[in-house]
Amino acid sequence: MRIASVNVNGVRAAAKKGMHDWIAASACDVICLQEVRAPLEITAGLIGEDWHVVEQACEIKGRAGVAIASRTPLTDVLAGVDALGGTMDEPVHTGRWIEATVDSPSGPVRIVSVYMHSGTAGTPKMDDKYAMLDAMTARLAVLREDFDRVVVMGDINIAHTENDIKNWKGNLKSAGFLPEERAYQDRWVDAGWVDVHRSLEGARPGPYTWWSMRGQAFDNDAGWRIDYQYASPQLAAKATAVRVDRQASWDARWTDHAPLVVDYAL
């Protein structure tokens, strides 16, 4: 089973720039999308008629939005506050979490698409990020109890270690690399979640999944690894290959992220 995650940075724009070519070539069974910024009927239509698609749109027009696209039917869909509880029904938190189950030859697999707040240090936006990180951490514990095979993926908007950001020294006080944010990922790993990308790549700089559209960040590979697949140990043990589908050149980019693709032997 090939599972991918990508922040499309607006599904309408991505479709115009080359998203369809990537979908056709990727041979994925499941794709989690973040920041679709469109209602379900638009997202599903742009992904294609051969896919089953579920989505939680953001209540704030033009922002966020998460979706799961699968070659086979999706069941037991939960989104937003129904999964995360608490204050996650506030408009600012909508369009950021959706989960569903897909079948595999080895049994059901729980799939989660998440789009974490980016946050801005020292502002209320950072409070929103920490609130969602708390809710996500609580949900992760429930998912581990309820499902043997589960993978939580998406744009977490945090570079976990120095290997996950090119210019780590210059970003020690920046949202996305604050010690308080990175500590959440430490907790997830300590609880048994496996960062599949890093586990297969090993401890080395990169490969990054996001580069600013400004300047020479992409050409110089001055990126951040902020897109992840966190899998339960049972599922992570079945991961056989990982790749980042980095576009060949700056002008070939259809999003400011690159898809993270993992193969699982199921």
UniProtKB/TrEMBL annotation:
Pfam families per UniProt: Exo_endo_phos
Domain Endonuclease/exonuclease/phosphatase stretches: 4-257
Organism: Demequina litoralis
Domain of life assignment: Bacteria
Family in the record: Belongs to the DNA repair enzymes AP/ExoA family.
Keywords, in A-Z order: Hydrolase, Magnesium, Metal-binding
Cofactor entry: Mg(2+)
NCBIfam families for the chain: xth
Stored InterPro entries: AP_endonuc_1, Endo/exonu/phosph_ase_sf, Endo/exonuclease/phosphatase, ExoIII-like
Protein name: Exodeoxyribonuclease III
